[in-house]
Every structure is written in C-alpha cells, then in structure tokens.
Amino acid sequence: MTAKQKPRDLIKKYSTAIMEGLEAKIRASSSVNHKLTKGELRELFVSTVLASFLSNQFDVGTGIVVNQKEEQSRQTDIILYDNRILPPFIKQQHIGVYPAESVLGTIEVKSHLTKKALLDAEASVKRLHEEIFEPRSSIYEDYDHIKPISGIIAFYGWGLRVLSDATEGAKWLTKNVRYIFAICLLGRFSWLNLPGKGWSMSQNPKSYEETKRFIAVYLDNLRTTSETRIAFLGQFTHKDWLSIYIRDQGLFDS
C-alpha cells in the first residue's frame, strides 16, 4: 500500500471490483439457453456476493419459508437467515426449508425490472409478511415483530421507466410498493425505503455505487433485524422453538 492509498480507498475499489465481477458473470450466463438453469446461476452469483459480506452467524440459501402452522411461502430466490436461532429443517446444497423465526431477509432475482416483475415480487413479500409471519401462525404474541426485510435485484435494460426519475419514482413506489425494502437494477439505479424518510434513489453507474448502496444498506439493516429478532424471541426468557416444529403437541388444536 502506498502512502497516498488509504485503506478505505482500497475497500471501495475492491467492492467495485466485486460488482464488476457480478455483472460479468451475469452477462456471461446470458448465453445459457435453459431458462431455469440460467435463473439458478444468477441466484447463486448474487448469493455469493452477499455471503462475502456476512459474518459466520448468517447464511444464504434458496427455497421456502415455513411457520409454526406449517404454512409455506412461495418459492423464494434468496433467503438470508441467522444460524443462532434455528437451522434450516431441510437443506441440500443451497436449497432448503427455513423456519420463519430464523429468516431475516429475502431477495427476488429478476432478469428485467419490469412493472410486472416488481409487483409480482411485492405480492410474494406481502404474503410472506401477512400470512407466514402473521401472529396467528405462532403460539407467541410477539411473532408480529419479527418480519423479514425484502428486496429485488435485476440486471438488464433500463427498468420501469418511472423509477429513473427521483421525484416521480418516489411517488409511484409510495403508492404501489409497501412491503419491499430495497430495489436494485445493476449498473443503473437503486431505491431504498428508509424508515421515517421514505423512498430514496441512488444513481452512479461508473462505480456501481447504486448496487453497493443496495447491498450495504440491506445487509446493515439485516444485522439490525437479527439483533431485534434475538430480543423478541426471548433472549432473556425461555421459549420453545424447535419443539413447536418437530413434536406432535397439538399446539394449534381448537
């Protein structure tokens, strides 16, 4: 390291290189003809980038989220969870079934950020929040306080046109997107719905600043969600979690 090179500059440049590598892999995979394989590769590329910024207590996978009543979410592209709470009940390679208590965040991976893609992702997150994490699905009243943070990332084109304008995009998102926290179109723009501030936009394609913002703020909030989750799940008072899932106790029988 030279005298003029600051450690922070090094980390910034390395982070930019990671985003450049992600885009290069996405572009290279575009020649894969099998749609499902192409989609799975893109999910793995994004998961690998996320994992590089996570400490050991967190992990990344794909699959479904299940609650105490065994209600299941839709197939979810990327699931981020906390190993300290509960491990996945079923997991082979990166595919699994994840207990709701340990799921901190989800991300949908799309080729294009169209209106349909965004609203479909919003509908999936709405179901996750209102059904899978609904208090009636738990024997504990504080279940309503542990909802995950969710995002969507896409790779090609210019995306939904209104999202390229900071003012009009914020208005449209406020009206149409309630459950998604973070939105990113790689190399174009990102949007974050920050508590107390509403939707805000970032654009800086030259250094992938929009994508770094998406990942950094999302993962910072994931860590905060993790600590809040630990507190609500009974950090200082005992609660049964594993027993609820694996024992036939009739907990929800009328």
Quick synopsis:
The protein is an alpha/beta fold and 254 residues long.
Primary descriptors:
254 residues, alpha/beta, 6 helices, 22% strand
The domain count comes to 1
- The coarse overall form would be globular
- Helical percentage: 25-40%
The main β sheet shows up as: 9 strands, mixed
Strands across the major sheet, in which order? Answer: 3-4-1-2-5-6-7-8-9
How far apart are the termini?
Answer: 67 Å
Order of helices and strands: HHEEEEEHEHEEEHH
Strand content: 15-25%
Secondary-structure-based class equals alpha/beta
Beta strand count: 9
Query: Using only CA atoms, what is the Rg?
Result: 19 Å
Tally of alpha and pi helices: 6
Mean pLDDT: 88
Give the low-confidence spans.
none
Topology:
Blueprint: H1 7-29, H2 35-51, E1 58-66, E2 76-82, E3 90-92, E4 95-99, E5 103-112, H3 115-132, E6 149-156, H4 166-176, E7 182-185, E8 189-194, E9 198-202, H5 209-232, H6 242-246
Parallel strand pairs: 1-4, 5-6, 6-7
Antiparallel strand pairs: 1-2, 2-5, 3-4, 7-8, 8-9
Overview of this protein structure:
Strands 3-4-1-2-5-6-7-8-9 form a nine-stranded mixed beta sheet, sandwiched between helices. It has one domain. It is built from six helices and nine strands, in the order ααβββββαβαβββαα. The longest helix has 24 residues. The protein starts with 6 loop residues before the first helix and ends in an 8-residue tail after the last helix. It is α/β, with parallel strands linked by helices and 254 residues long.
